[in-house]
Design a protein that fits this description.
single chain; 165 residues; mainly alpha; 2 domains; 6 helices
Length: 165
């Protein structure tokens, strides 16, 4: 709660979840870059990149700045690694459609994930697998437009994107 209070006192309002699962957006990067998800203290910060309305860049930047100030002030004696995933180039609408565009049977999964009983978790996993197959097929076909699979090419930088096009 120290970080939350510091951030709020710094003018950025944030919420706290006591039950949110850390998903692949965190675990894949931590596994590859740090060797695991439980080897170091982690402060996961979720910024909305799944459903509209998306967090404006200025607000996300303000959050990053105040978190940086918190770390500098409270933990200046420690080495800290900041990592980010998803973000401005990440628009998973094909995999996680906007809530107002899905059928009523899927809304509970959007709102409560596996903590609901209407859509079994396996049904959601099966849907995700099929959606990923469609995305992989789109990526395989040439030529392709990165927007087809939710990538914002105006944000991407580096050789990996240039090699895709």
């Amino acid at each position: 709660m120290d970080a939350v209070n510091y951030v709020r006192n710094g003018g950025v309002d944030v919420a706290v979840s006591y039950s949110m699962d850390v998903d692949h957006g965190f675990s894949q990067l931590l596994g590859r870059a740090a060797g695991g998800v439980d080897l170091y203290p982690i402060l996961p910060i979720f910024v909305s990149c799944i459903q509209i309305p998306f967090t404006p860049f200025a607000r996300a930047r303000a959050l990053g700045e105040v978190i940086g100030n918190f770390i500098d002030e409270k933990h200046s004696d420690k080495r800290v690694l900041y990592m980010g995933t998803g973000g401005l180039s990440h628009d998973p609408a094909m995999l996680f459609p906007p809530i107002d565009s899905v059928g009523e049977e899927w809304k509970p999964y959007h709102l409560h994930g596996k903590a609901q009983s209407i859509v079994p978790q396996q049904q959601w996993i099966d849907y995700q697998i099929e959606a990923h197959k469609v995305g992989a097929q789109i990526m395989h076909e040439a030529p392709h437009d990165p927007a087809q699979f939710g990538v914002n090419p105006d944000i991407l930088v580096g050789e990996s994107y240039r090699q895709m096009t």
